[in-house]
Amino acid sequence: MTILDQPRTEPALVPVRRRLPMPQIVGGGVLMFIGVLWLLERTAVFDLSVTAVLAMATMVIGIALMFLSTEGPHGGLIVLGTVLAVITLITAAAPFEGFQGGVGDRSVELTSVDEIRPDYNLAMGKLTIDLRQIDDLGAVTTLTASVGTGELIIRIPEGIAIDLDARVGAGQLEILGQVIDGLGIDETYQSPGYSEARESLKLDLQAFTGRVEVTDE
Question: Which of 4, 8, 21, 181 has a CA-to-CA distance to 39 between 20 and 30 Å?
Answer without folding.
Answer: 21
